[in-house]
C-alpha cells in the first residue's frame, strides 16, 4: 500500500508478525473465536476505550497489544500505564479478570510484560509469543520468574568456594530478574561444571522447560556434551542424562523433547535463517575470522524455533563470537542469558550489563591452589629478532617450496632477498631457526625439571605443547623435533583440524598416554581443552589478542596430582604439578595485545574467511560480490586442468557461471523482474501473501547462488588452489641464540615469593612447634619429628598456596646459587627454614646437609683410631643417616620400619652397638641436624 500514515505502517508490521507467530487476526465486527487457537481482534471495546488488539486463546481473553508508530519506539515504557489500563479493564460483553500478557509494539520494537510475575517488569522481545505458549504458561500455577524464588539453598559439598559463589550469585541475579549475568572463572577452575550445576538446579527447581548451551566450535560442543553426560546429580546420585534429555545439534532439525540443547552459534544462526550448514563450518570459532560485515544479515522469525523455545541460554567463551552478525541469535530468543568466560574484555562487561556474578580470575585461582602459576623462559635468536638476507651474489640458486604440496624445486634469485623475523614460516622458511629453538628447548628442559630422570639416568621429557603458525610450519617443527630429540614418530605428533590422523584420537593420547610427549598445534587446542599433565608451552607463533593468549596459556594451568601425572604419561614425576613453564621463542610475552578484535570490517579479508562466512549463512550483497570478484581473479590464474576440477566439484558449473549467479542474487533488475513475475502469478491474492512470496523468491535466488559453496570439498579446493604460491627456503643463514633464560620480571616475582615466605616463617615462629625447634637455641636437644614438619607444610600450603616449598625453592634457584635439589617438599621445607633461620648461608638440600654432617661425625670418631666402627656397623649407620635425611629424626620405634625391619630391627641395633645404642641414636639426631 502507498500513502500510509505511521500508525497504519506499524499495524501492518504487527499483523505480519502476529500471522507468523500463529495468530489469526480478525476485525471486531466480524470475529470468530473458533477460527483458531489464538485470535487477535483489532479495536476491541473495553470500558476505558478500544484496545488496539485483544488476544484470545482457546476463546478466552489473555492479552493486550498497544500499537504505536515507529517514532514512539524510544518512549514505549511511557505507555505501559495505558496498556495496563486496557489489561485491567472489562471487555465488552465479558466479565473478565485482568489480562496477564501485555505488549507495547511499534512493529519494529516490542516490549512484553507478564503481570503474573512477582514483580512484573517489561522486557524487549524479538516478536510475539505463540498462542500455544500462553496455553502452557496458563496451565502452570507460577510463572518462571516466580519459580526462580523456589530454588532452595545450594548444597556445598563437592563444590569449590569459587563455584559456590558463582552459583549463589547467579541465582540471586535470576531472582532479581536481571536478564543477563556474566560468570568469569579462570580456565581450569571448573566453570563448565559450575554451569551444569546451575542448569540442573534450574531444571529441577525452577522447572525450566528448555536450556540452550551455546558454543562457537564443534570441538567445544562435543566437550560440553561429554561433561553433561558425565555429570552426576549430587542430590539423587544419578547421571544428568538419566534425569534430563541432552541433545547436541548437528543438523537443522531440533527435536522438542530434550531439556538441554548444545549448539554452535553458527548452527543456531543457520537454523533461524533456515539454511543448511556443513559441520566443517563449525570447526573454527567465528571470532578468528577477519571478516565482519558492516550490516549484519538479519535473521527472521522461525516458527519451528519460536522466541520462547528456550528459557535460558548459557554462552560458553562469551568474550568472543557474540557480537555483530552473531548477536542476533541472542537477541532473537526471549531468555535469561548466562555468559561463561575466563577472559572478559570491556565489550563483554558492557554486553552483560556489567552484571558480574563471579569474578574469579587466574590470580585468585592460583592463590587458592585451584590453578598453578607459571614461569617464562625466553629463547631469542638472531634471525627471529633481526631477520636475515640472502645475497644473489653468493646464492644464485635457492630452494623454493610449494605451500600446498611442499614439493621443493630450484629457482634463480633475481635480486637480494631481505626478510624480517615476522616473515618466518609464512613467506620464508629457515629450518635453522626452528632447529635452534628446538635444540635450545631440549638442552634446557633438564634444568627446568631436574627430577625427571628414569632408573637408567635418562631424562624424561615433560608433556610439551608447541603452538605453530600454520599447518606447514607445524610439519617443519615435527620433523625437526623428532631429529633433535632422536625419537620416533609417536614421540611428536600434530593435533590440528587438518591432521591426517584423527585429531581427537591424538588429543586423547596426548592427554592420557605416554606418547606423544610433544604435540604441535595451530589452533585446535588453543582453548577449551583440558590437558592436566601438560607442563610446558612453547610459543613459536605470536598472538595479538589478549584474551586469546590467556586462553592459550590456560592449557597449562590445570593442577595435576603426582598420581595422575604418573598414570597419564610421566612416570618419573615425583611431585604434584605445582607450576608450568612458558617457553617464549617469538616474543609473545612482549608483543602488544588488544582486548578484542576491531568492530569494523577489516581490510584484506582472506578468501577462506569469505567462503566460511557464506557457508555459515552470511549472504549479504557485500559478501557475495566480494566472492565473485575473488573468483574472477582466480579464474584468470588457473590452468585448464584446475578449471575442470572446479567444475567437477561445483556440480558442473564453471567459475564464470557461478560468478554470474552470485552477482545476480542481489541485482536490482533481477529482483524487480522476480517481483513482477510473482505479482502477475498471484494477482488478486492478499498483499501480505504476495509480499511474502516475493521475499521467498528473492531468498531462493540467493540460496541458488551459494548452494555449491555448502560443499566443504569445493571450499577447500578453492582455498588450497590459491596456496600454489611458493615459500622461499633459506638454507644459507644459520641461526644462533642471542638471549636465553628466565624472564627478568620473574626475578622480581621470585624475590617477592622469598620475602613472603620469610615473613610467614618469622610471623609464625612462636606458634608452630616445628618452627620453635628451629628458632630455639637448644633445638639440637629437642625432639624434631617428621610429623611436625608435615603439619607445618600442610599449614603453610593451606594458608599460603603460592608459598608451597617447591615453589619457594624454585624462586631461590632463579636468584642465587643453591646446593643440590629438593627431592620432595618436606625436605625442601626443612632446607628453606634452615636458610631463613640463618643456620645455612646457602640454600642446601637437607639430604646434602645430613651427608656432610655424617662425614664430619665419622671423621671425628675415627680421629686417633684406624676405624672406630666395623663395616657392619657402618652399613647400619648409613641406613640411619639416610632415614634421618628423609624423616628428620630417628627413635627406637623407627627400627620397626623399613629398611631396618628387613635387617633385624632394634635387636640387630643392640647386637651391633650394645650399650652404645641409646647414645648413638641421640648423638646422630643431634649432629645430623646441625
From TrEMBL:
Cross-referenced PROSITE patterns: HELICASE_ATP_BIND_1
InterPro entries associated with the record: EcoEI_R_C_dom (IPR013670), Helicase/UvrB_N (IPR006935), Helicase_ATP-bd (IPR014001), Helicase_C-like (IPR001650), Helicase_Restrict-Modif_Enz (IPR050742), P-loop_NTPase (IPR027417)
Domain Helicase ATP-binding: 172-362
GO molecular function: helicase activity
Chain segments annotated as coiled-coil in the UniProt record: none
Keyword tags: ATP-binding, Helicase, Hydrolase, Nucleotide-binding
CDD domains reported in the protein's UniProt record: DEXHc_RE_I_III_res, SF2_C_EcoAI-like
UniProt protein name: DEAD/DEAH box helicase family protein
Amino acid at each position: 500500500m502507498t500513502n500510509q500514515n505511521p500508525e497504519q505502517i506499524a499495524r501492518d508490521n504487527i499483523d505480519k508478525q502476529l500471522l507468523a507467530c500463529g495468530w489469526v487476526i480478525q476485525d471486531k465486527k466480524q470475529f470468530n473465536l473458533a477460527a483458531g487457537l489464538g485470535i487477535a481482534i483489532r479495536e476491541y471495546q473495553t470500558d476505558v476505550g478500544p484496545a488496539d488488539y485483544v488476544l484470545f486463546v482457546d476463546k478466552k481473553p489473555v492479552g493486550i497489544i498497544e500499537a504505536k508508530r515507529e517514532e514512539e519506539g524510544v518512549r514505549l515504557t511511557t505507555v505501559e500505564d495505558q496498556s495496563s489500563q486496557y489489561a485491567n479493564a472489562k471487555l465488552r460483553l465479558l466479565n473478565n479478570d485482568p489480562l496477564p500478557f501485555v505488549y507495547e509494539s511499534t512493529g519494529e520494537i516490542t516490549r512484553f510484560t507478564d503481570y503474573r510475575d512477582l514483580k512484573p517488569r517489561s522486557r524487549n522481545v524479538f516478536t510475539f509469543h505463540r498462542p500455544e505458549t500462553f496455553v502452557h504458561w496458563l496451565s502452570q500455577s507460577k510463572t518462571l520468574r516466580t519459580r526462580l524464588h523456589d530454588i532452595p539453598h545450594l548444597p556445598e559439598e563437592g563444590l569449590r568456594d569459587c563455584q559456590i559463589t558463582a552459583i549463589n550469585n547467579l541465582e540471586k541475579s535470576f531472582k532479581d530478574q536481571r536478564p543477563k549475568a556474566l560468570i568469569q572463572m579462570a580456565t581450569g577452575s571448573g566453570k563448565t561444571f559450575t554451569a551444569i550445576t546451575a542448569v540442573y538446579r534450574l531444571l529441577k527447581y525452577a522447572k525450566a522447560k528448555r536450556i540452550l548451551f551455546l558454543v562457537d566450535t564443534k570441538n567445544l560442543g562435543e566437550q560440553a556434551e561429554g561433561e553433561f553426560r558425565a555429570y552426576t546429580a549430587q542430590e539423587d546420585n544419578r547421571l544428568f542424562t538419566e534425569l534430563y534429555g541432552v541433545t547436541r545439534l548437528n543438523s537443522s532439525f531440533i527435536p522438542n523433547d530434550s531439556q538441554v540443547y548444545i549448539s554452535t552459534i553458527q548452527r543456531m544462526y543457520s537454523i533461524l535463517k533456515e539454511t543448511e550448514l556443513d559441520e566443517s563450518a563449525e570447526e573454527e570459532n567465528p571470532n578468528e575470522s577477519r571478516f565482519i560485515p558492516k550490516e549484519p544479515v538479519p535473521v527472521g522469525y522461525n516458527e519451528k524455533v519460536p522466541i520462547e523455545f528456550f528459557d535460558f541460554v548459557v554462552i560458553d567463551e562469551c568474550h568472543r563470537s557474540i557480537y555483530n552478525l552473531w548477536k542476533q541469535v541472542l537477541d532473537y530468543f526471549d531468555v535469561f542469558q548466562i555468559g561463561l568466560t575466563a577472559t572478559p574484555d570491556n565489550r563483554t562487561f558492557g554486553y552483560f550489563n556489567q552484571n558480574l556474578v563471579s569474578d574469579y580470575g587466574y590470580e585468585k585461582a592460583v592463590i587458592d591452589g585451584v590453578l598453578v602459576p607459571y614461569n617464562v623462559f625466553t629463547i631469542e635468536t638472531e634471525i627471529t629478532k633481526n631477520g636475515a638476507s640472502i645475497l644473489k651474489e653468493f646464492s644464485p640458486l635457492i630452494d623454493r617450496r610449494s605451500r600446498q604440496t611442499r614439493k621443493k624445486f630450484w629457482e634463480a634469485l633475481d635480486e637480494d632477498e631481505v626478510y624480517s623475523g615476522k616473515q618466518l614460516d609464512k613467506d620464508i622458511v629457515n629450518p635453522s631457526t626452528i632447529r635452534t629453538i628446538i635444540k635450545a628447548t631440549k638442552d634446557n628442559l633438564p634444568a627446568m625439571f631436574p627430577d625427571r630422570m628414569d632408573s637408567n639416568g635418562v631424562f624424561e621429557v615433560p608433556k610439551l605443547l608447541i603452538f605453530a603458525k600454520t599447518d606447514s610450519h607445524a610439519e617443519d617443527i615435527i620433523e625437526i623435533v623428532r631429529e633433535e630429540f632422536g625419537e620416533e614418530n609417536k614421540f611428536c605428533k600434530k593435533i590440528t583440524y587438518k591432521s591426517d590422523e584423527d585429531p581427537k584420537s591424538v588429543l586423547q593420547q596426548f592427554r592420557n598416554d605416554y606418547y606423544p610427549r610433544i604435540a604441535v598445534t595451530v589452533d585446535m587446542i588453543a582453548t577449551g581443552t583440558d590437558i592436566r599433565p601438560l607442563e610446558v608451552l612453547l610459543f613459536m607463533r605470536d598472538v595479538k589478542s589478549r584474551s586469546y593468549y590467556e586462553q592459550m596459556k590456560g592449557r597449562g594451568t590445570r593442577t595435576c596430582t603426582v598420581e595422575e601425572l604418573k598414570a597419564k604419561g610421566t612416570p618419573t614425576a615425583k611431585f604434584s604439578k605445582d607450576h608450568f613453564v612458558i617457553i617464549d621463542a617469538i616474543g609473545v610475552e612482549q608483543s602488544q595485545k588488544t582486548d578484542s578484535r576491531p568492530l569494523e570490517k577489516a581490510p584484506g579479508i582472506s578468501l577462506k574467511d569469505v567462503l566460511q562466512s557464506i557457508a555459515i549463512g552470511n549472504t549479504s550483497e557485500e559478501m557475495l560480490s566480494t566472492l565473485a570478484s575473488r573468483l574472477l581473479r582466480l579464474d584468470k590464474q588457473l590452468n585448464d586442468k584446475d578449471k575442470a576440477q572446479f567444475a567437477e566439484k561445483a556440480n558442473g558449473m564453471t567459475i564464470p557461471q557461478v560468478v554470474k549467479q552470485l552477482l545476480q542474487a542481489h541485482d536490482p533488475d533481477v529482483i524487480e523482474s522476480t517481483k513482477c513475475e510473482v505479482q502477475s502469478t498471484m494477482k488478486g491474492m492478499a498483499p501480505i501473501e504476495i509480499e511474502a512470496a516475493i521475499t521467498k523468491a528473492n531468498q531462493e535466488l540467493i540460496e541458488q547462488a551459494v548452494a555449491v559453496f555448502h560443499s566443504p570439498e569445493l571450499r577447500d579446493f578453492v582455498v588450497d588452489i590459491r596456496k600454489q604460491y611458493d615459500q622461499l627456503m633459506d638454507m644459507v643463514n644459520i641461526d644462533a641464540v642471542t638471549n636465553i633464560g628466565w624472564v627478568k620480571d620473574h626475578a622480581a616475582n621470585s624475590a617477592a615469593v622469598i620475602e613472603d615466605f620469610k615473613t610467614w616463617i618469622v610471623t609464625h615462629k612462636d606458634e608452630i612447634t616445628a618452627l620453635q625447634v628451629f628458632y630455639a637455641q637448644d633445638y639440637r636437644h629437642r625432639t624434631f619429628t617428621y610429623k611436625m614438619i608435615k603439619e607445618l607444610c600442610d599449614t603453610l600450603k593451606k594458608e599460603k598456596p603460592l608459598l608451597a616449598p617447591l615453589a619457594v625453592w624454585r624462586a631461590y634457584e632463579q636468584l642465587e646459587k643453591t646446593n643440590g635439589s629438593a627431592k620432595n617438599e618436606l625436605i625442601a621445607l626443612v632446607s628453606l627454614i634452615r636458610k631463613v633461620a640463618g643456620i645455612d648461608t646457602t640454600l642446601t638440600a637437607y639430604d646434602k646437609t645430613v651427608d656432610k654432617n655424617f662425614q664430619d661425625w665419622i671423621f671425628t670418631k675415627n680421629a686417633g683410631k684406624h676405624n672406630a666402627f666395623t663395616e657392619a656397623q657402618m652399613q647400619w649407620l648409613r641406613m640411619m643417616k639416610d632415614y634421618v635425611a628423609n624423616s628428620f629424626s630417628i627413635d627406637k620405634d623407627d627400627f620397626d620400619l623399613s629398611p631396618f625391619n628387613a635387617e633385624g630391627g632394634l635387636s640387630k641395633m643392640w647386637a651391633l652397638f650394645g650399650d652404645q645404642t641409646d647414645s648413638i641414636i641421640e648423638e646422630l639426631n643431634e649432629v645430623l641436624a646441625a
